[in-house]
Amino acid sequence: MNILVVRNDKVGDFITALPTLYVLKHHNPANRIIALVAPLNRTLAESCDFIDEVIVDSSEDILELAFKIKQARIDASITLFSNTRVAIAQFIARIPIRIAPATKIAQIFYNRRIIQRRSEVKMGEFEYNLELSKALFPDISLDFPKPLLHFDDTAYKAFCETYSVGKPVIAFHPGFGGSSDANWTLSEYIELVRIAEQNENIDVVMTFGPDEENLYNEAKALLDESRVILYPSQGSIALFAALLSRFGLFVSTSTGTYHLASAVGCETFTFFADTLFASAARWKSIGDESKQHPFMIPHDRAGRSQMFEQVKQELKNRLSKGL
Fold first, then answer.
1. Alpha carbon distance, N-terminus to C-terminus of the chain
2. At what angle do helices 186-197 and 213-222 cross, to 10 degrees?
3. For a disulfide at 8, which of 57, 77, 165, 175, Cβ 3.0-4.6 Å?
4. What CATH number is given to the structural domain containing 100?
């Protein structure tokens, strides 16, 4: 069976789809699993051995998207997060079985609509995604390995040679690309970096996305004469994932890089907004939960200050144990 799985939005959202792609493939290895992804996630999707084909949604044109889907000869589709455009494209492509959550006007273009009240946050986003696979295979096992993604050390070796890294790495990622509802300021991140920098048994890295040049320059000015390594990521998502798989601890807000770090087995300190919609309960990652350390940032100034002091203490405690 040729099965299309649709999750064509941001990095973190796509990572919440990976367990679904995995269990569909392992339910029956003869299944051909096709992922419809955003251009940004192409290399990551292509690195997954449980994905057989990748369709990149790179155009706003519905007919062009429908043509790409039709060429793949899809028997069934599972749309983990839908909009009217992708719903119509699948309808035009005449996929026989079209599964999606029963939400929004887009549901009228699917013939198996599953009621999921995700706003109630009775489970994590990736778990809601997994539940949709039962609409196709009621007896499917939803178990998947942790970490789910694996990379060799080629990229990490090159990174170590370029930046003279020879110790376990703790990385801080202050940016968030607008995909997080709560975060610390750059100055507050620098405070956390200074704590880590005091430990001579680790190397400290700050990572920046390809669109965060201004943030990189601000951090560079604040960290003048520091031993902290500033790493502007310019390669693919898969390359960054390979680096994260060798880091000891990754500190960031709840954004795509956090999901990526957890998916490759890296321990995480992650900052969430103090709301149910943006909480760790909804956006826990697909990695080992014992390696995920969530912190909910209050909205009020006093609560925020108190939480930051807690984060600093937790970081000191964690680093005292080594990476």
1. 44
2. 50
3. 57
4. 3.40.50.2000
pLDDT tens-digit series, residues 154-188: 999 999 999 999 999 999 999 976 556 689 999 99
The per-residue pLDDT for range 99-136, each reduced to its tens digit, is: 999 988 889 999 999 999 888 999 999 999 999 999 99
Under 8 Å CB-to-CB from 187, ≥6 apart: which residues?
222
125 with 197, same domain: the answer is no
248 touches 224 (CB < 8 A): no
Closest to 77 (Cα-Cα) out of 13, 115, 66: 66
Same domain, yes or no, for 306 and 194? yes
Q: 199 with 291, same domain?
A: yes
CA distances, 161 to each of 102, 184, 193, 233 (Å): 51, 31, 22, 16
- The runs of H, that is alpha helices, within 139-274 are 154-163, 186-197, 213-222, 237-244, 256-263
Instruction: Tell me the DSSP string of 3-19.
Output: EEEE--S-HHHHHTTHH
pTM for the full model? 0.94
